[in-house]
Amino acid sequence: MSNVDMTVRIGGLTLKNPVLVSSGTFGYGREFADFIDLNKLGGIITKAITPKPRAGNPPPRIIETPAGVLNAIGLENCGLDVFIKDKLPYLKDLSAAIVVNVAGACESDYVEVVSSLSKEDGVDAFEINISCPNVKHGGIEFGTDAGRAGELVANLRSATKLPLIIKLSPNVADVCEIAAGAEAAGADAFSLVNTYRGMAIDIAKERPVLGNKIGGLSGPAIKPLALYQVWKLYQSVKLPIIGMGGIMNHIDAIEFIYAGASAVSVGTANFIDPSASVKIVDGLSTWLAEKSPRGFEYFIGRAHRA
Ligand SMILES: Cc1cc2nc3c(=O)[nH]c(=O)nc-3n(C[C@H](O)[C@H](O)[C@H](O)COP(=O)(O)O)c2cc1C
Q1: Within-domain flag for 116
Q2: Structure pTM?
Q3: Atom 21, ligand 1: which residue's CA is nearest?
Q4: Cβ-Cβ contacts under 8 Å for 151 (sequence gap 6 or more)
Q5: Could you tell me if the CB of 243 is within 6 A of ligand 1?
Q6: Which domain holds residue 170?
Q7: Of these residues, 78, 106, 132, 176, which one is catalytic?
Q8: Closest CA to 164 of 172, 174, 154
Q9: Mind listing the pLDDT tens digit for each residue in 120-146?
């Protein structure tokens, strides 16, 4: 990697480079250790963690579409205790920042995960998932109501000093309204987008394909939509933004940075090429070396200038 300053700050969190990997597309991190050097990443965002283990939705839970995937995993995860005992000890020795994605069926679930993990070594920040479109209770209920989002963030703020990154849903009329509630309540940063609600029908069976019937669309199909959400949010909040949605290469990542993201996160691309994220780190580094002696942060939101 060339010798350029790729450091970015997300609230109180400093990342050595602006590339993270997205929740639910990278397991608990270790699953990718045979393919890439995890220490090259700016950060790893874990699978959503809930207080108790969750089995998730009935299959099929993930299907391909022409330019992306539809998933309805339903927050399957190992639960808080197993995460602390079996997953965190490995993660805490990595130099990538560890961001734990937190989900729950009710407010106390989120508070339990955040307060327990704040006492453990190795967690650098939380990404609060108020945007999962694939579960019956929790998540999206907070992400579609500015008042409830604000209340949740205020409670989490009193439960931790670690940075709170609020993950927003694009499945709302105005993402800025939800963000304003969270910003006023003490959030440190935003990440967006989570998946767009979608579905597929099996015409032979005359039924929806996904076990959950509806799911969330991700991948290149959503990139222009996601980019617009980042662009819009940048104009309405002061807090830093982690941009995601269909990022496949470093050019896509630069578009998000110009639109206003301080960092980017790579999701569906990990399924196509497990080394996509480190290729993006290398691509950004080469781009920056050729482009300018300035550090990376200079380019955040550049496309907004008059
Ligand atoms: C299979 C799958 C599982 C996901 N699980 C989660 C999750 O547990 N928590 C979460 O906040 N987002 C989850 N997401 C959403 C991604 O983190 C990301 O926001 C979204 O896929 C858009 O980025 P992409 O187009 O690069 O994949 C999941 C996405 C996929 C494809």
Answers
A1: yes
A2: 0.97
A3: 218
A4: 107, 185
A5: no
A6: 8-304
A7: 132
A8: 154
A9: 999 999 999 997 766 666 667 688 888
